[in-house]
Amino acid sequence: MEVICEMMKLKPERVNDYIDLHNNTWPEIVTATREAGMVEEYVYILDNIVMVIMKCENFNETCLKLANVEIVKDWDDKVREMLISDETFFHTKDVLLDLEPVWRLDNFDGKGVLKF
Questions:
Q1: By C-alpha distance, which of 7, 6, 4 is closest to 86?
Q2: Where are the domains of the chain?
Q3: CATH 3.30.70.100 for the 2-107 domain, yes or no
Q4: b/e burial code for range 51-81 (CB count within 10 A of at least 16 → b)
Q5: Model confidence, pTM
Q6: Angle, CA 45 vertex, CA 87 and CA 85 arms, to 5°
Q7: Which residues is 55 bridged to in the sheet?
């Protein structure tokens, strides 16, 4: 199981729009996300920084499946218009930054010994 953290920065004036969109999530988005293989997803906001934690078997496969769903494209378009690039903060010009964990509790057994 993969756990991915995605970070993005909202335009300050669009924070409430982003929250409203998620408070009124389209049912088709939930269905498509689950059918693509997403097991869990959490969205956190601090000021205008968004952190999304996603858990799925294969993140790349899930993303490829979602990329072909029209309602997901519509959702992504709405979200992306709320985002800004911050190369200083994210070290990239892209508005989305995917992070992989450097440490995971589930890599250890019940006695605290690394499983691998």
A1: 7
A2: 2-107
A3: yes
A4: ebebebeebeebbebbeebeebeebeeebee
A5: 0.83
A6: 20
A7: 3, 40
Q: How far is CA 98 from CA 4, 16, 52, 60, 111, in A?
A: 7, 23, 9, 11, 31
Q: Is 110 helix (H, G, I), strand (E, B) or coil?
A: coil
Mapped onto helix, strand or coil, the DSSP state of residue 84 is: strand
What pLDDT does residue 12 have?
96
Please say whether the beta carbons of 41 and 63 come within 8 A: no
Those residues whose C-beta lies under 8 Å from the C-beta of residue 59, and which sit 6 or more positions away, are 2, 4
Please write the tens of the pLDDT for every residue from 86-99. 887 777 888 877 77
Q: What's the confidence (pLDDT) of residue 103?
A: 83
